[in-house]
Amino acid sequence: MKIRQATRAEIGAVSELATKSYIQTFKNRFTAEELEKRIKATRSIEFYNRAFNKDIILLAEEDGKLIGYVQFGEPTFDVIETSDEDKELQRAYVLEDYQGKGIGTALIKSAFEHPILKNAKNIYLDVWDKNYKAQKLYKSLGFEFVAKWDEDIIMRKRNIHQSG
Ligand SMILES: CC(C)(COP(=O)(O)OP(=O)(O)OC[C@H]1O[C@@H](n2cnc3c(N)ncnc32)[C@H](O)[C@@H]1OP(=O)(O)O)[C@@H](O)C(=O)NCCC(=O)NCCS
Predict the structure, then answer these.
(1) Ligand 1 mean position, distance from CA 112 (Å)
(2) What is the pLDDT of residue 161?
(3) CATH number, domain at 129?
(4) Which of 37, 114, 120, 161 has its CA at a distance of 20 to 30 angstroms from the CA of residue 88?
């Protein structure tokens, strides 16, 4: 398994991976119609055309197949006041067949090593309040609960690389 940064030339493959992993994760939570609407807004080529201007995407690849990704950048929520020094781990997804093998952990740890997160004061994320598996993983990586937001919770990791 290899982890590397995605390039804009891979926009189609990234959108495909993001769509597939989103469907696997949320097929039982949303209706087909709602799922389609959400994918168009947040996983489509049009979405990633904009995302590549501002976010960093790291891909996990095995035998030439994309199997997971993390996406991070500026905070995207306004429920908590953040500063310019704060960043957000926006997405972490591993395809179903590859989960539970340490790939999600490796992706997130690689993201922590990227200058954008390494130099952040706080790293935030939001996660569905019923996604206990992801929450447990985030806790083990140093994130703690800071706020409830609709059906999501916001978690924060204070950066150990920064003082004060
Ligand atoms: C959350 C997610 C990204 C985690 O990725 P993952 O690759 O399954 O995570 P890991 O394998 O690193 O860790 C998961 C578990 O496997 C364990 N694990 C880690 N390395 C392992 C290894 N080499 N062999 C076996 N198990 C391992 C971890 O300890 C962890 O155990 P725990 O659940 O008891 O804490 C993945 O489950 C996923 O894509 N879920 C659906 C999407 C989602 O919910 N994303 C978050 C939305 S905010």
Answers:
(1) 16
(2) 63
(3) 3.40.630.30
(4) 37
